[in-house]
Amino acid sequence: MLDTALRILLPQQCFACGAGSGDGVLCRACLESLPGIGLARCPVCALPALEAQTCGACLAHVRPYEATLAALDYAFPVDRIVQALKYAHRLAVLRLLIDLLARQPVPEADLVVPMPLHEARLRQRGFNQAAELARPLARRWGLPVLLDGVVRDLDTRPQAGLPWGERVANMRGAFRVRRPLKGLRIVVLDDVMTTGATLAELALSLKAAGAARVENRIVARTPPPA
Hints:
Elements: H1 2-9, H2 28-32, H3 56-60, E1 67-73, H4 78-88, H5 94-102, E2 111-114, H6 119-125, H7 129-141, E3 150-152, H8 167-171, E4 175-177, E5 185-193, H9 197-208, E6 213-221
Parallel strand pairs: 1-6, 2-5, 5-6
Antiparallel strand pairs: 3-4
Helix pairs in contact: 5-7
């Protein structure tokens, strides 16, 4: 009854177009037209691919992770929603992102690992958005979540401010795994994938700790440069 009363007294506006959206972040029209929803993607790197076949880049260069599933493209309004979560503490958008990720098949895995933040970045932001995604999704999937078993030792420069070619070097040696993962299948949760350098470095660290397989689940994939 309280929820119904609040929706009547405080109707919410769609984050993208400003129309009435009830109790949702987006109105129905914007939700159904989100960029990249239902797009055929390479099963390894999640870039657009004909008939969802492995792309030429992934065939030519083996990735340290086995699979990547992306719910959306990182374009308007998804980019604004993710930025509002990370930089404006709009935690209300989490429910939308979690629901979109939950539309994907349940992973065949043993453990969920959120992308860790360096302690300095965590103090500054106040929360780890990847962990906030991982906890409810792990419950839905019936999987345990490892919140403190992987740490980010290096306070690297933000990847978003670097040229594509410098991102791999920027992330080298950034992660440390603090428990054995021998034979475990890992699902990594993160918000955005651009070049994949951060996810690749984390996958290398997880494999070095014994992980048998690493699969990424991300909210949005940055489209390739034109």
